[in-house]
């Protein structure tokens, strides 16, 4: 039985529904008959779709890495532009002193902007990484708890079935 949606939570709900709708074994209060094939199919689907949850978290991390790489590229462009500006000003003999001062200001400003951009990129990357980690950990916890409950319910039903 494939869950239409394909997401782990809907598949867990399908498994729960399967267990909840199981028919009672006559004269046995706690015994139920389940379709093992359908339950195993659902568990296989959960196992197969679990990587999509992880892929989502990896996409967040990949976005963070791209942001940092772009910020570094932009910083290098700003540095190159500043160097070009400095070289152009130095070539102008009549404003050598003014060009030196301006070059220093541009370099300081560029350094400050680069430092701010890198700091901001690292801060945002840390936030994205933290959010992705928290999201992934929460997903793992929910899925683990749901799988444990489902496993315990199946094991209990199987044990009850075997004992009778």
Please name the defining characteristics of this protein.
mainly alpha, two-stranded antiparallel sheet
Word description of this protein:
- The protein is mainly α.
- Helix 2 (36-91) packs antiparallel against helix 3.
- It has one domain (8-163).
- It has helices at 8-20, 36-91, 96-163; strands at 23-24, 32-33.
Topology:
Elements: H1 8-20, E1 23-24, E2 32-33, H2 36-91, H3 96-163
Antiparallel strand pairs: 1-2
Write a concise synopsis of the structure shown:
Helix content is 84%, strand content 2%. By secondary structure, it is mostly helical. It has one domain.
- Count of separate DSSP helical elements: 3
Shape: rod-shaped
Number of strands: 2
In round numbers, the mean pLDDT is: 84
**Low-confidence blocks of residues:** 1-5
The domain tally reads: 1
Q: Please give the alpha-carbon distance between the first and last residues.
A: 28 Å
- Strand arrangement within the widest β-sheet reads 1-2
H/E element string?
A: HEEHH
DSSP helix fraction: over 70%
Q: Structural class, from secondary structure content?
A: mainly alpha
């Amino acid at each position: 039985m494939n869950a239409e949606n394909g997401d782990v939570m809907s598949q867990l709900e399908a498994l729960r529904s399967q267990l909840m709708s199981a028919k009672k074994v006559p004269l046995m209060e706690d015994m139920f008959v389940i379709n093992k094939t359908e339950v195993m199919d659902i568990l296989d689907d959960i196992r197969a779709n679990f990587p999509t949850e992880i892929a989502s978290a990896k996409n967040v991390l990949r976005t963070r890495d791209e942001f940092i790489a772009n910020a570094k590229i932009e910083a290098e462009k700003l540095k190159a532009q500043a160097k070009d500006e400095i070289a152009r000003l130095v070539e102008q003999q009549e404003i050598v002193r003014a060009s030196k001062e301006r070059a220093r200001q541009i370099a300081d400003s560029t350094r400050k902007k680069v430092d701010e951009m890198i700091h901001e990129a690292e801060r945002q990357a840390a936030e994205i990484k933290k959010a992705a980690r928290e999201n992934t950990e929460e997903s793992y916890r929910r899925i683990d708890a749901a799988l444990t409950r489902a496993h315990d319910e199946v094991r209990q039903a199987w044990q009850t079935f075997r004992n009778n």
